[in-house]
């Protein structure tokens, strides 16, 4: 079971009108890995993530999650498969008509399995897991700061005990302090719960701290999917501009430190 | 994935506890198929048996919460459990100890607070509305001095959107109402042998009263809601702030064009709808009462004084002004969440229709001696 990849993308082709975004793209993610998808703006990182979630379907190629094609099997099987991953959307996507506790409890309530007391207990647990005070439970999403929105959204993504966590720009819009704190939070949860994580990011610090593998999306395919240290050795124009420019300096230092 | 099981070993000696062994994956996904039976088997015998959790291969917080609540939120008297599982259940137990704050019950003090805040909210509405009106007057004064800055393009776009594009639906509704009114009146009038008075009834009723009100209700539902929603979404997506940051006045560029456009377009729509409604009534009268169209058209100006047309026009303009003002007022009050958007759009349509009917009543009183033949 451990040898079976959690996510397997084969020959993905995506077109928007006449523009080809992905052309025969392959990517494999194994259990317990933290894979960061990086690439220039408009290279189709978020689109790829949406393929994995099943919000969009590629024009050609196959998306397999947990060893089976995403859209295979009965409606029930597909639903069960979807419940095995949690998604953190870029802007949180909290339901603005519900308060924090209702937002986090919503997936559990939809399952109609847990009792009210269990749900309240689990919501309190998830809140403490993402290091939020119990008092935040009654706030509405509009009353939260950007960092808190991300934390609540993460708690909601964890509500169904997922094995796979998909993060779209987890640290975008957070100041460096908060984004480091959020990264550490994700990292500790990943270790605690043994999650597989796929994240899309622009932030070199985030991926340096978090990722075990870096998948570079360039020229409409994944050009490499290896660890940070090995990525730094690569001779590719994107690596050059993304990691070795002054902005990437800190990551370079950190990457060197690990080695 | 190993499916979860509960195995029971019989008691080794009489009087001793029997042993209950939990096995397999105690995770949300694995448990979901037989949850009710597990919950029943766990509950009610916390201290009666010896629990053994050493065979559990995976435990997530859902499974832990299930056990903890089935046990009545206490550790059983006899339990054999590895340290890592104890830690997982311990975390669930700890968070059960610090429960979430509850929403307080509604009591009499809250009722007073609700009433008070409703009054304060009404005051806010009045103040905001006055402020908006004042700002629009200032903008108009500014435009008088700087005629080059009139937002003509926006005005014309709004006339097209709120006026021209509303013509088909207004015509359809007007025509049908005309037919219905004429048909129902004709039945009554024929009984009295007063067939010719259908011209008076339709002429006065539609031109003076029904045309303007009908169009207002249509436009409030169609364009008023659209204006509120548009301004609301622009607030949510910070487009209004972006305009302000560029030094573009939001009232001048967004609100004034809407208000002017609707004030201009509404009288024309009223004219259009009233004529189509009269056409419908005329057709129906011809078919029902055998009243010739030429006769209808000839008689109309004799029995309906011109003042009625002016009143209809004036009503149209004032109603259009009110609808646009109310719609913009509520659009600017939208706060960035979906609930507020829907609440304000609803409030906008309901308020503008109410305001239109109130103003219509004022009109009726103010013009009671104008244009009614005696």
From TrEMBL, chain A:
<dbReference type="GO" id="GO:0005524">
    <property type="term" value="F:ATP binding"/>
</dbReference>
<keyword id="KW-0067">ATP-binding</keyword>
<keyword id="KW-0472">Membrane</keyword>
<keyword id="KW-0547">Nucleotide-binding</keyword>
<keyword id="KW-0813">Transport</keyword>
<feature type="domain" description="ABC transporter">
    <location>
        <begin position="7"/>
        <end position="244"/>
    </location>
</feature>
<dbReference type="InterPro" id="IPR003439">
    <property type="entry name" value="ABC_transporter-like_ATP-bd"/>
</dbReference>
<keyword id="KW-1003">Cell membrane</keyword>
<dbReference type="InterPro" id="IPR027417">
    <property type="entry name" value="P-loop_NTPase"/>
</dbReference>
<dbReference type="InterPro" id="IPR003593">
    <property type="entry name" value="AAA+_ATPase"/>
</dbReference>
<protein>
    <submittedName>
        <fullName>ATP-binding cassette domain-containing protein</fullName>
    </submittedName>
</protein>
<dbReference type="Pfam" id="PF00005">
    <property type="entry name" value="ABC_tran"/>
</dbReference>
TrEMBL record, chain B:
<feature type="transmembrane region" description="Helical">
    <location>
        <begin position="166"/>
        <end position="184"/>
    </location>
</feature>
<feature type="transmembrane region" description="Helical">
    <location>
        <begin position="254"/>
        <end position="272"/>
    </location>
</feature>
<protein>
    <submittedName>
        <fullName>ABC transporter permease</fullName>
    </submittedName>
</protein>
<feature type="transmembrane region" description="Helical">
    <location>
        <begin position="309"/>
        <end position="332"/>
    </location>
</feature>
<keyword id="KW-0812">Transmembrane</keyword>
<dbReference type="InterPro" id="IPR030802">
    <property type="entry name" value="Permease_MalE"/>
</dbReference>
<dbReference type="Pfam" id="PF02405">
    <property type="entry name" value="MlaE"/>
</dbReference>
<keyword id="KW-0472">Membrane</keyword>
<feature type="transmembrane region" description="Helical">
    <location>
        <begin position="344"/>
        <end position="366"/>
    </location>
</feature>
<keyword id="KW-1133">Transmembrane helix</keyword>
């Amino acid at each position: 079971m451990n040898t079976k990849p959690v996510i397997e993308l084969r020959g993905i082709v995506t077109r928007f009108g006449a523009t080809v975004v992905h052309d025969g793209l392959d990517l494999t993610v194994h259990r317990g890995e933290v894979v960061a998808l990086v690439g220039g703006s408009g290279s189709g990182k978020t689109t790829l993530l949406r393929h994995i979630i099943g919000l969009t379907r590629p024009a050609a190629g196959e998306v397999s999650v947990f060893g089976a094609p995403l859209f295979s099997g009965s409606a029930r099987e597909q639903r069960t498969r979807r419940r095995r991953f949690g998604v953190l959307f870029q802007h949180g996507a909290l339901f603005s008509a519900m308060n924090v506790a209702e937002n986090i409890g919503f997936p559990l309530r939809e399952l109609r399995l847990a009792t009210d007391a269990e749900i309240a207990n689990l919501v309190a647990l998830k809140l403490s897991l993402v290091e939020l005070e119990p008092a935040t439970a009654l706030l509405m999403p509009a009353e939260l700061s950007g960092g808190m929105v991300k934390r609540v959204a993460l708690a909601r993504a964890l509500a169904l005990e997922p094995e796979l966590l998909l993060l779209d720009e987890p640290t975008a819009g957070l100041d460096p302090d908060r984004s480091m704190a959020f990264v550490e939070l994700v990292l500790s949860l990943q270790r605690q719960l043994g999650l597989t994580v796929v994240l899309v990011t622009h932030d070199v610090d985030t991926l340096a701290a978090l990722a075990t593998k870096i998948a570079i999306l360039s020229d409409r395919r994944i050009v490499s999917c290896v660890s940070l240290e090995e990525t730094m050795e690569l001779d590719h124009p994107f690596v050059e501009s993304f990691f070795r420019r002054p902005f990437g300096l800190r990551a370079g230092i950190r990457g060197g430190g690990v080695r | 994935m190993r499916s979860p099981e509960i195995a029971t070993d019989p008691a080794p000696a009489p009087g001793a506890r029997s042993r209950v062994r939990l096995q397999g994956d105690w995770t949300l996904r694995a448990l979901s198929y037989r949850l009710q039976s597990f919950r029943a088997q766990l509950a009610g015998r916390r201290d009666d048996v010896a629990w053994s959790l050493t065979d559990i291969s995976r435990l997530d917080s859902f499974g832990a919460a299930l056990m903890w609540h089935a046990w009545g939120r206490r550790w059983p008297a006899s339990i054999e459990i590895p340290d890592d599982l104890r830690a997982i259940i311990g975390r669930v137990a700890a968070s059960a100890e610090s429960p979430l704050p509850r929403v307080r019950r509604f009591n009499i003090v809250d009722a007073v607070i609700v009433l008070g805040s409703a009054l304060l909210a009404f005051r806010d509405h009045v103040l905001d509305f006055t402020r908006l009106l004042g700002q629009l007057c200032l903008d108009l004064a500014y435009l008088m001095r700087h005629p080059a800055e009139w937002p003509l393009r926006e005005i014309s776009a709004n006339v097209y959107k709120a006026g021209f594009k509303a013509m088909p639906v207004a015509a359809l509704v007007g025509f049908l109402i005309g037919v219905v009114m004429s048909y129902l009146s004709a039945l009554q009038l024929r009984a009295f042998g007063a067939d010719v008075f259908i011209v008076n009834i339709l002429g006065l009723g539609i031109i003076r009263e029904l045309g303007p009100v009908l169009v207002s209700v249509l436009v409030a539902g169609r364009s008023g809601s659209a204006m509120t929603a548009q301004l609301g979404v622009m607030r949510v997506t910070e487009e209004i702030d972006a305009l302000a940051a560029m030094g573009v006045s939001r009232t001048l560029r967004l609100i004034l064009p809407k208000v002017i456009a609707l004030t201009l377009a509404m009288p024309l729509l009223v004219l259009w709808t009233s004529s189509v409604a009269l056409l419908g009534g005329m057709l129906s009268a011809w078919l029902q009462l055998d009243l010739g169209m030429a006769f209808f058209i000839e008689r109309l100006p004799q029995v309906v004084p011109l003042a009625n047309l002016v009143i209809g026009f004036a009503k149209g303009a004032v109603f259009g002004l009110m609808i646009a003002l109310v719609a913009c007022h509520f659009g600017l009050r939208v706060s960035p969440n979906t609930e507020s958007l829907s609440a304000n759009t609803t409030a906008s349509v309901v308020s503008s229709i109410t305001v239109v009917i109130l103003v219509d009543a004022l009109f009726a009183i103010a013009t009671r001696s104008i244009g009614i033949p005696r």
